[in-house]
Amino acid sequence: MDSIISAATWRGIENFDSSRKPLLGYFNVDDPETMDWEIKWALENGINFFIFDWYRCSGSTTNKCTGNDSVLGQPITLDKLAHTNSLHQAFLSSSFKNKMKFAIMLTNHQPQTITFSDKNDLRDNLLPFIINNYLKQPNYLKINNRPVIFFFGTYFNPTNPPTLSRYDHEALQIIRTSITASGLGNPYLLAEDRYFTTRKNERAHFFKDIGYDHTFSYWPVVYTVNGQPVHLKSSITEDQALTGMKESYDWLKNNQVLPFIANANPMANGTNNPLWTLSPSKYEHLLSYLSTNIIPQIQSDLGRQMILTDAWNEYGEGHWVAPTHKYNFDYLKSIRKILSHQNNTPDYRLPVESNNGPYDSQYQNFLKKVKNPSQYQNEIYNFPNSQNYLIAGNTPTSNSQQFTFGGWFKPSSSQTDFIPLKKGTSFQFVLNQNGTGHCILATDKTAWYTPNTAAALRFTFNQWNHFLCVYDGNKLTSYINGNQLSTSTAAVTGLTTDPYSDIIFGKDFTGSIGKLYFSKKALSATEVKTLYENTKITSAPTPTQAPTSTHPTPGDVNGDNKVDLTDYSLWKEQFILGELGTKTLSSPVDFNQDNKVNILDYSIWKQAYIDSLNS
After folding, report:
1. Which CATH number is 369-534's, of 3.40.50.720, 2.60.120.200, 3.40.190.10, 2.60.40.10?
2. Helices (H), 470-598
3. Contacts of 361 by beta carbon, 8 Å cutoff, 6+ apart
4. Rounded Cα–Cα distance for residues 285 and 338 (Å)
5. How far is residue 567's CA from residue 560's CA, in Å, rounded to a whole number?
6. Alpha helices in 325-376 (DSSP H)
7. In the chain, where does the domain assigned CATH 2.60.120.200 lie?
8. pLDDT tens per residue across span 388-419
9. How many CA atoms lie within 13 A of 328 on its CB side?
10. pTM of the model
């Protein structure tokens, strides 16, 4: 179960392949009612447990894994966890949670996501939290009265072990001992290993030596078909994919270093090579083959009782079985047909058909950030703090050997280095606190931040600066205020990448941005100058006003348009602070503006006070 889905995820899916849209809509992942529907559909079609990605911290959240604000080494609380909405806010609050089992997958992506700092942190903080909040739940997944825990990303090179989150033999022993001592029994510890598809079992040997019980795979891909490598191909047919997966599991069945859990993955249709998808009918063939030819030969009771259908909802990565507009309920129907007794009648009605939903309020709010070309090309946007950002939508960006990007930027001086405009790892502006910066662009032939492929920038804080960077198929050139500034010293060639049409601007930025420009054309120097002149924004001068008195009414210190004893009390405080008028002091009670608070100011207040009483 993907735990990182957000409104931004849905926006990416809508841009990339809207047919992947869930039948629940672009739903709020922290809504228990949407989880009710997911549990209902899963249970009615033979799926009886979810595995949730579990992150303790993440570099992409406020709960950091490293640095001065790291949450590692401290007691764990819910507000100090990363990406918990799907599990805590939705599943554990669902009306149907007690009908569905769940397990966690401790997820490590060194160094961005880490689960513990050292063995003391593992023993004293991580394990008590997991035991008390998950393993002791009545619906936590237990087989043979033993809790099942999945581990992702825990392999490491023994000659260069990680400093943090080191899952070595000692760590595994601590985990077993702590969980067993809590009265929950000896846990099943399962390590992720997809490399059987490459006919390699070095990692399986490593995991066995460390102390894991089983391996399992996440998002297994196809490397060979009929003995021929296909991993360099951009895509393969579904028949090739089905043959490749069968051959991989045949090899694993005959080379069991550790018992394994079979994974019936229906597709690998994201950023991997090769791309492939099994149609629901072909998926039934894989399910049947695994349940008949592979699972009975697994050398453990656990392996013969369990099968994974990876994954429920990885719409972005490109592997899912949850209902979508693309495949409706067909993958779930295949699972029910092959893996269940089919002794029930599933209800495939959508929420709207029973007057429920919609559940997409977060996505609808997110869409308010999106500006269309007629807006971002002409409007000016203010970013009063670094938590605001907007999105330039429907931009022409990908599959071009020419590209121009930029606009007007007025950064405030109260910030450190920042990136006011960014599109993933495709292109961005970087501005530095010292008034310098650069633009960078990647293509299918020029990797992100290849040395000397950036073009330099310079700018002035608190003034409008017109940045434009031009890619002409050979190099990247920067312009400031209509004039050429710098050219990359290394070649930049190839097609621009990233099919998504959204560009983020204003994130982690304070100031103003306006009149953005994107084009699949390399503007000439003359065209850059013309664009600058035609879109020019000038910084309006600060308006001057006639001086006004600080105190419209003499003796009125607090500005409430009356002179009373409150003003006297304020004068008295300042009189004492100014050492009875002997110390130079700039103060609002210095009515005669001689830089002292003394008896003369008291006299002014007193006369004004008497006048007010007589008026």
Report:
1. 2.60.120.200
2. 525-534, 565-577
3. 28
4. 9
5. 10
6. 330-339, 361-367, 373-376
7. 369-534
8. 899 999 888 888 999 999 999 999 876 677 89
9. 6
10. 0.81
